């Protein structure tokens, strides 16, 4: 049983591990934000990490159905609320840590402490794999009894990577002196792939076979999920980025990939009844990396979406005000982005990713960013 924790990348790392080990011939289980899975059977996910009773029921079902491996996201809420208490992990992976969930944890130091406690509880028989390029990466491993390993794109590490090429066709990486092409895109995915490769090697899998399978593996739904319109070749990207750091990673990747006069149009909102401190930060990031920004609703939950947008607008620099629009209706915001887009421009719709709903005043209304984009492209004739 392998647990993945960190602010960003948990879903991708857990999903890639599940797909990798399934391809290597193991019957595996997945517990993630997007979906839970027992072998080929998919079960809808409600939380990143289920409550303790549901989680143990999942694990019992996985055992009964012959699973030998389970890969699961371990959220900070789950650690703090003891949802994973008593479970014996064979390995733990740390992706990164940035500002998130401060509505719950109150301070960033407390958020770090909670994440670290997961590694503190690992036994000496387990492995602990951490991102050496995150300044808290070594802190996570300070008191763990587990065998310590590091992965990195920047410094010497057990699993060292270097980006040779990054394009819409995929990533070309050098991993421990082996050059491999992957279908995933972006520096953030280079880190995710290193974490997956490192974990598989820590579990005793053949290095060459792991890289061979990973090179053909796709990521989870709603993570840098892109399509190109038929007529005007406008690139639209749907991504779950809902923290300032995740949004920065996605937009920085898009900026590196764009060519010529391609403009970046970002549609972004912030969730209601969640960490309010990140709202102006999200807006500031969007302004720095985009040519046009449309602030809109995410999942407003029980808050007034217009008030959420006003809090986001506080992060807009004076020099960027002219390139910002606020449209509360998310569907209308996406439609406007397509209207503004010219041939080969890039539209990012951020925040909801794989979600098929929009939560407003306690009601989950059907809403799918990818589906809305496809419909709007068809209606616009672009």
Quick summary:
This protein has 382 residues and is an alpha/beta fold.
Mean model confidence by pLDDT: 93
Which oligomeric state applies? single chain
Number of strands: 19
Question: Can you give the helix content as a percent range?
Answer: 25-40%
Distance between the termini: 47 Å
Description of the structure:
It is a single chain. The model has no long low-confidence stretch (mean pLDDT 93). A hairpin with a 2-residue loop joins strand 10 (170-175) and strand 11 (178-182). This protein is α/β, with parallel strands linked by helices and 382 residues long. The protein contains 13 helices and 19 strands. It has an eleven-stranded mixed beta sheet with strand order 4-3-2-5-1-6-7-8-9-10-11, with helices on both faces. A six-stranded mixed beta sheet has the order 12-13-17-14-15-16, with helices on both faces. Helix 12 (330-340) packs across helix 13 (369-380).
